[in-house]
Amino acid sequence: MTVAINGIAHVYLTVNDFDRAVPFYRGLLALFDMTCLVDTDELYYCVGARTGVGVRRAQSPEPFDQYRAGLHHLCFRARSREDVDAVAAAVPGLGGSVVKGPQEDDWAPGYYSVLFEDPCGTRLEVNHVPGKGHLAADAGTPLEGDVQRRLGEP
Question: Would residue 4 count as lying in a domain?
């Protein structure tokens, strides 16, 4: 038996500087046409695009480390390359930083993405993959070594 999930219901990000992070997410999630449901001193939570994103105040000030146990990065799927470009253009004005500007990559056929960080250093990505990506009949799949090479891992 298998369970056919219908996407991701919500993701919570715990940030080490809530007061710097919330204005960034307020702008980013509004750009994604998400609606804020909770805006308190401890939690900022929005819904839209068939998911929810929560930003919580951390209990300790440790910086984000994408190689520590837990979240490596969060990737949002865009509907077009132009949407990826729009996010890349908006991120610096929201207080984030672009790590890798919009570019094609070989993660999947037609893969196009921008990699960026929120003001606390949490890694985020927005990508666009046309059609069915790896699920297309003629797409094939990346080899494990190729994935490790792209991630810069041994």
Answer: no
